Amino acid sequence: MTVKPGPIDALDFLEIGSQLSDEERLLRDTVRQFVEDKILPDVGDWYDQGYFPKELAKEMGAMGLLGMHLEGYGCAGTSATAYGLASIELEAGDTGARSFVSVQGSLAMYPIWEFGSEEQKQQWLPAMAAGEKIGCFGLTEPDSGSDAASMRTSAKRDGSDWILNGSKMWITNGGIADVAVVWARTDEGIRGFIVPTDTPGFSTNDIHKKVSLRASVTSELVFDNVRLPADAVLPNVVGMKGPLSCLNEARFGILFGAVGAARACYESALSYSKERRQFDQPIASFQLTQDKLVEMMISVNRSALIAMHLGRMKDAGTIRPAHISFGKKENVRAALAVARSARSVLGANGITLEYPVIRHMTNLESVYTYEGTNEVHTLILGQAITGINAFS
At residue 98, what are phi and psi to the nearest 5 degrees? Predict the structure, then answer.
């Protein structure tokens, strides 16, 4: 029997949704509804005020979004692709929402889950999965960004304890966190430490006057002779393998999330272009506007296909770090181009928070840089295809 194709869906041109299982569609639609109900009505005000509603953590936890791709300890144990689909929907709301989930699950919970002792897992993961405890990840320093191995933060043994000194910078969730996973230089190499934020000597300074990621908490972490017990160290990893594996987990969510930001910009521009009239006709009827809309649509669909393919690879166990760099580099770059083009379609309205475009555009400027700059991912890919390390 010949099946007649239905009309083309401008919002899912390649019918990528048809490639999802019923369970994946249900998860996607549930998170999308959560974003529509809990984030989109107020996120413009949050962004304007430089505010992230901490109470969202427990709501996200109740939905199973925190550490959702991890097994056990109160975590949902979903597929990597399902985690990616949730990231798309969260970032279609705002990068701050996706960043919160990403940091909580992939940067704070994941290292405890992967490298922690059973006691550490039992102590922290169930509460973090429920959103009752908020985590952050301390790697970047004021003078150590892409070259994370040159960190100055150090931990010295003092009897059976550790003494932690130094600082970390640009830390998402830092000022609202209950626990920080901090990477520090020790005599035996780079080690990870679980640091409750009420430990004496630990303090944070929130970073203000941001024009990007305003609906997200970004902080400096300061360690002034922070005394930690022997069981604060993550026992099952030494060296940069620890933090780099966490970054790969987070980058995976980012390459999906960028699709959501791009999609939100494209949908806003498409809707606006059909309503906005100039010279007695909708601007969607102009050839130059249609060119912009078509290029946006192609970029969004191409990025979604890349993300879905990488999600299936991760679930099959065939993905490598360079594959994730491919997705992070390309999808964020494409999303930023979509946001800029959408801003031009909206004209002067494109710079107001009445529409989501300028918010996504400025947020994506940060996403372009964090979790590995665009240049770093370029060099990772260059090494993958040439076998030559061009980092130094």
Answer: -65, -40
Give per-residue pLDDT as tens, 337-378: 999 999 999 999 999 999 999 999 999 999 999 888 889 999
What is the pLDDT at residue 1? 55
**Which residue pairs from 124-129 have beta carbons closer than 8 angstroms and sit at least 24 positions apart in sequence?**
124/179, 124/194, 125/67, 125/70, 125/72, 125/73, 125/74, 125/75, 126/73, 126/74, 128/66, 128/67, 128/104, 128/179, 129/61, 129/64, 129/66, 129/67, 129/70, 129/73, 129/74, 129/75, 129/76
What contacts 276, CB < 8 A, 6 or more positions away?
282, 283, 347
Q: Is the pTM of this model over 0.90?
A: yes
16-129 sits in which CATH class? mainly alpha
Three-state DSSP class for 69? coil
What CATH fold (topology level) applies to the domain 241-386?
Answer: Butyryl-CoA Dehydrogenase, subunit A; domain 3 (1.20.140)
> Average pLDDT of the chain?
95
Look at residues 170, 330, 142, 325 and name the one whose alpha carbon lies nearest to residue 250.
325
Residues of the chain with CATH 1.20.140.10: 241-386
pLDDT given for residue 259 in this prediction: 98
- Predicted local distance difference test score (pLDDT) of residue 247: 87
DSSP-assigned letter for residue 131:
T
- Do the beta carbons of residue 191 and residue 243 sit within 8 Å? no
181 alpha-carbon distance from chain centroid: 17
Residue indicated by tokens 């005599």: 187
**The two three-digit tokens of residue 310, written as one number:** 């990488």
Q: Which residue in the list 89, 249, 330, 371 is annotated as catalytic?
A: 371
Can 220 be counted among the known catalytic residues? no
- How far from chain centre, in Å, is Cα 382? 24
What is the total residue count of the chain? 392
Q: Which residue has the higher pLDDT, 239 or 89?
A: 89
Residues 270 and 264: their CA atoms lie apart, in Å, by: 10
Residues of the chain with CATH 1.10.540.10: 16-129
Q: What is the CATH number of domain 135-232?
A: 2.40.110.10
